[in-house]
Write a structure and sequence with these properties.
Blueprint: E1 5-12, H1 25-33, E2 36-39, H2 42-52, E3 58-60, H3 66-78, E4 82-86, H4 99-108, E5 110-114, H5 121-128, E6 135-140, H6 147-153, E7 160-165, H7 170-181, E8 186-191, E9 199-204, H8 205-214, E10 221-225
Parallel strand pairs: 1-4, 1-5, 2-3, 2-4, 6-7
Antiparallel strand pairs: 7-10, 8-9, 8-10
Length: 229
């Protein structure tokens, strides 16, 4: 493994998932000091930088262009350019772009720093009341192909399970969880974490299916499922 090149650096900078006060002083300093900010959506990140009073060059770096962009970005890093990678919200690389660029930098021996900061699944897990000693982060399930196979593989999982889900698939996902894990399995459903309308509901999968059948569904969701007993 190549030794890190101290003169170059890729910073992974977590950004607020809701409340703008969640950004750290270190994150603000790094965003000010780097040469360019790689943003999942430059419009979203532009609003954050504007709020912080930071004027900085931004380049778009998202799931659709990540494969093509990595080699070029690595060459720029090799030449001494300092970059900060941010996602729209939370920590880059957690169900967001970043993995390919980080892997390429590791392979090239480029220095990488990942700042600690906001990520949605940690507060959802801690608030669930389920065991935090051992858990598995599953992120987003496959939308179609492989979805049932993934769920069936988790049917007897004893660790607490954490999933991300979009609002228009929450009810369907809860119904599938009920079918695979059983109606009496306990679940905690959090939405809009760190935002004004943050909400967490706890109960059995049967109760949550009934709740979300009639409830208005808005915001991004984290679903925490108790492990099999």
């Amino acid at each position: 493994m190549a030794e890190p090149v101290e003169e170059t650096c890729l910073y992974l900078v977590p950004t607020p998932i809701g409340n703008l006060e969640d950004i750290t002083l270190r994150a603000i300093r790094v965003l000010k000091e780097v040469d360019v900010v790689l943003a999942e959506d430059t419009r979203t990140s532009g609003k954050l930088l504007n709020h912080l009073g930071i004027e900085k060059r931004m380049h778009s770096h998202h799931l659709h262009n990540e494969h093509k962009a990595v080699a070029h970005l690595v060459e720029r890093l090799k030449k001494g350019e300092k970059m900060a990678l941010v996602s729209d919200a939370g920590t880059p690389g957690i169900s967001d772009p970043g993995f390919l660029l980080v892997r390429a930098c590791v392979q090239e021996g480029l220095k990488i720093e990942c700042l600690p900061g906001p990520t949605a699944f940690v507060p959802a897990l801690v608030k669930s009341g389920f065991s935090t000693d051992r858990f598995t982060f599953e992120g987003f399930l496959p939308i179609k192909k492989g979805r049932q196979t993934r769920l069936q593989s988790l049917a007897q999982e004893e660790r607490t399970m954490i999933f991300y889900e979009s609002p228009h698939r929450v009810l369907k996902t809860l119904e599938q969880f009920k079918e695979v894990f059983g109606a009496e399995r306990m679940v905690s459903v959090s939405r809009e974490i760190s935002k004004m309308f943050e909400e967490t509901l706890n109960g059995t999968l049967e109760e949550m299916v009934q709740t979300f059948t009639t409830k208005a569904i808005k915001g991004e969701f984290v679903i925490v499922v108790q492990g099999s007993k």
